[in-house]
Amino acid sequence: MFESFFDAFANVLNFFFEITGESYGGAIILLTLSVMIILTPLTLKSTRSMMRMQRLQPEMKRLQKEYKDDRQKLNEELMKFYKENNINPLGGCLPLLVQMPVFIVLFRVLQGLVGSLQTRTETSNPCQDSVPVGQQCFVPKHLDADTALYKALNATDQMLWLGIDLAKSASKALSESFTTALPYLAMILLVLVSSYIQQKQVSGRNPTAEVNQQQQMLLKIMPAFMAFISFTLQGALVLYFVVSNFWRVGQQWFIGRHIYGKDDDGNPIEVTARDTTPDEDKPKGFGLKALFTEQAENVRSAREDAKAAKGDGGTKASSAKSTTSKNGSKSGSSKGASGKGGGQGSSQ
């Protein structure tokens, strides 16, 4: 079943390869843009879901304070609240999650297209007739032998586009020479920068609104993670990252300028979360540090509550002792006064 899916994806790539004048990079770019266009409605929907969450932040804060001592009840009330207001708490991450299967399929297809290299010999010719004896060529999978992309790959051992071998990774290019690796490192830098810009665009819309801690961590580590994995991936996949990232940067700019702050009918809305979120409830940061800080604060709060409860018991006991002591003192004073009065009577 999956092989049929990979075959279909490879044929779509072959279609773009043909209409771009047999350009490997052009085919990857058009394929990426097609995926981004298809996902645009989902992106807009997730953006509106995030907007609704921001408008309803005061009510969410109220629930969190009301059920702060009962985590299970708080989760139940929040889920009920999300359902009543048609909110998906992970809606902001949904477009990224949907793109993961596309990336995995593209990865598998490219592995099938350029993952097998064979050498033409006197007795065996797995390559096109134009390949000299002793030279290597790709033997692509997922494509028929009469397709343009198959013939092009079957006649070479490189996937050249603008002087870059898209079948090669930055790590492999760096093992050959630093000069060879420069174009690959430049693409990785573009991945890092564009991922960071996306993070700033999203967080900059409403920096004081509370964000799910897992989402904070995702937004924080994603740029570095994308750059890290790009170092070991084929240039074609890194090009996919570059194009998709810059598409999203432009898309987020458009959303922020023309859509953000409007309801589903296009009317302006008032985002109240920024004005109603107390200073003490604002997020302390992003990522793992914020996550650990929150857990530490929860533990410290529990300890303080336990100490307070213990202190209340001690205070009551101390009050009882103090009362008893005072009563004893009063009794002693009375006895002393009586004794003193009796002594005065005897002397008289």
Please give a structural write-up:
This protein is mainly alpha-helical and 348 residues long. It has one domain (2-283). Helices cover 70% and strands 3% of the residues. The strands form two sheets. A two-stranded antiparallel ribbon has the order 1-2. Strands 3-4 form a two-stranded antiparallel sheet. α1 packs across α5 and α8 (178-205) packs parallel to α10. The termini are far apart. Residues 269-293 and 329-348 have low confidence and may be disordered.
Main attributes of the structure:
348 residues; mainly alpha; two-stranded antiparallel ribbon; 4 strands; 70% helix; elongated
Write the layout of secondary structure elements.
Elements: H1 2-19, H2 24-55, H3 57-66, H4 71-84, H5 94-114, E1 117-119, E2 136-138, H6 148-153, E3 160-161, E4 164-165, H7 170-176, H8 178-205, H9 213-230, H10 235-259, H11 273-276, H12 287-347
Antiparallel strand pairs: 1-2, 3-4
Helix pairs in contact: 1-2, 1-5, 2-5, 2-10, 3-4, 7-8, 8-9, 8-10, 9-12
Q: Which structural class should the secondary elements be placed in? A: mainly alpha
Low-confidence stretches: 269-293, 329-348
**How much β-strand is present in the residues?**
under 5%
Average pLDDT number: 74
Distance between the termini: 121 Å
DSSP strand tally: 4
Which H/E pattern describes the elements? HHHHHEEHEEHHHHHH
Rg over C-alpha atoms, rounded to the nearest angstrom: 34 Å
Q: Report strand order across the widest sheet.
A: 1-2
Please tell me what the overall shape is.
elongated
The helix content is over 70%
The description of the largest β-sheet is:
2 strands, antiparallel
Please work out how many helical segments DSSP would assign. 12
